[in-house]
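Hi P.,

Sorry for the delay on this. The queue was packed all week, but I finally got your sequence through. Input first:
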Amino acid sequence: MLEQNEKSLKDQAQGESQKAMLFVPYRYNRPQMLPPLICSRRLYVHLILLLVIVFMLVIIRLMSTVKVNFVHFHLESDSDAELVTLPSQFAHSRGALCLDGSPPAYYFRPSLLSVKFWIIYLPGGAWCNSEYDCFQRSLTELGSSHVAKISIPMVGILSNDCEINPDFCLWNVLVLHYCDGSSFLGNDSTVRSYESQSLYLRGAVVFEALIDYLKESTDLAEAEQVVLAGSSAGGIAALIHADRLRTMLPHSVKTVHALVDAAMFLDLPDVRGNFELANLFKSVYSFHSIENSKSIQECTETQPNITERWRCLLPEVYYKFVFTPIYFVNSVYDTWQRTYLLKISCFASACPSVHRDVVYNARDSILTFAHNITRYKKNGVYLTWCPVHTILNQLRFSSAELGDSTVQQSLSSWLQHDLSQITGDKNFLSLEAALEVCKSSIKL
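Then the structure:
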């Protein structure tokens, strides 16, 4: 009996023990182990993302500075003209290229009133007359459209300020980018080279390609009045291309005038007796094959001596062949001519008497040239005693210091068909007195 009770107690204890050890399953989430913040794979991803961001920033930066190839008003100033580069295919199909092979370009500021009056301006910039000289030039904006300014300010005769430029302030303005080094007259179909760099001497081709493109892409094809103006080397271009331009323009054009600024270059001896201008023009004429330019051939074909055909580059020779009315603007003491052609770097009283004699001989020669120009009643001349170089595209265009009347006033009278005459200064001062009187204008 006692044994049965003990056995019963053991069984009961064992059962309770089993109940106490009963396992009840319970679902739980296993803790996730995060990968380390920096591992080789993630580092690569971050680097790639960083490179993409940097690349996008570079692209945005480049896009913000790229030249604009369509016309729009400049945000900084509505008086600026915007650069337009000819399509590469158009330029190459015509062989019209800057010295470095880049396509030609022009600056454009449309008229605010959409008038049918156009002024085409050819800027100065001298010339190049050798492979080395033209190669050096091709690295600058004077030989390439790739480094040309995106926009340029319009002042003087190009200004849209009607107070200082009442005759042209509402006109459409075109400035042809000068990038050939030959006054837009070169016509060499071959390709020159210097240190493995190709050089293109195609100034005349560039001029005609620009005019053709403008007729296709702007309202120049509907123009009624056109003025072709140029300063210095651009003045030579305006003089020689004036009649050629007339033949290229549509029949809607009623009048064409040429304005020649700071380009009354004369074949005179310098202080050493050398003829610097003759030597320069001979080399430019030959090097750029200017004899092949259509614009100059009416003159060159009349020269019996082939070696003297370069003289058609001289305004005193070529103006006689121009049918288009011409207005010359010049200083009798032109600073560029005095320094580079006459080789005189001193000023007035500091100059030896022999140097002053050369200066005054040049002055008298310009006066004689002016009188010859105005023998043709269609022509006009404005002369100033102020020693400056270029006036039309400068603030001094409307300066009263330049003479008895401003260039703007005299030009306006000529355009209104007043009698042709020499205007500006009536009694020319000595160089020393002119320097004193013209202090303000010289700085403009």
